[in-house]
Amino acid sequence: MPDNPTTQPTSAQIHRWRKYVADEVAEGAIYRALAQKKSGQEKQILLGLAAAEERHEEYWRNKLGEHARPVRPSLRRSILRFLALHFGSVFVLALAQRAESNTPYSSDADASPQMAADEQVHEEVVRALATAGRAQLSGNFRAAVFGANDGLVSNLALVMGIGATGVASGMVLFSGIAGLLAGALSMAAGEYVSVRSQRELLTASRPTQVTLTAAPDLDLDANELVLIYKARGMNDEDAEHRAAERMGLFTCDCNPSFSLNPEARAEEFENEHEELGSATGAAATSFCLFASGAIIPILPYIFGMTGLAAVATSVLLVGAALMTTGGVVGLLSGASPMKRGLRQLAIGWGAAAVTYCLGLLFGTSLA
Q: How far apart are alpha carbons 47 and 85 in whole angstroms?
């Protein structure tokens, strides 16, 4: 740790260093709060990060010397600390990863090279900690974002296209409700068929107990039992050994590493089925997710709004929802929430603009 500076720091340096102290204190508190909700190695890793932030805090306090005093941390780190204390989820780790990646130490001459390197390492450590949570969320989260966004964009495009033709607001509302139901039912049906088909494929692929039931009656000199085990992935030696066990040439499972015992994996296959979930549950979830997005574009019409005001309100509501879902995606991926939100917004509004122009074209043609 460096000694107290011999030269008096400038007011700009004092202000900046105080902010660094406050942020380091907040980051240490974030990691300690996360550690309280963890156990084992993950807890030790988080406490190690907190200790590193304390070293950085001490570095800046030494440089400040007599000018050191309590300062409020930045708004971002204050929010992170609150989330860590009350939630402690993968979202907090994703936010912490982004905070570590935005360190100013790499461009600040007052920061030591070791501290800048520390922050790079911290980002990678937090990234690794968040990986497991991201993996758990990826499937369900992808389905949720896809379902809600599909409802938002498709129904906004439908409402914009129908509304641009100049029809009555009641017709726009009816079209929006029809689009909601049609899309939600289509999503539900597709998810039901997808999950049901996947479960059936897994069932068809699961090894049966034929090696147990047929073995007593097989010809000892000519049978295809070895072929079963080869087809299940065993090499020649393992397959022959397992077949000999089944034929009764061995009285015990002489070498379990040879046997592999695929019959004992029946419970594992059942667990795989459970991870897929039920087809009915998947269908209901898809229906609700699509409907939750598709209802937003028609809210102004449900509450009696008409004309351009209804169209503008619908566009703004959907825009806010798209920014939210895009921001959450960016947050989880460790990218900029603003950029991801704007990307979702551009895609949604772009699709709506195309159908609106088509509606105007058809409306003019009909007139």
A: 15
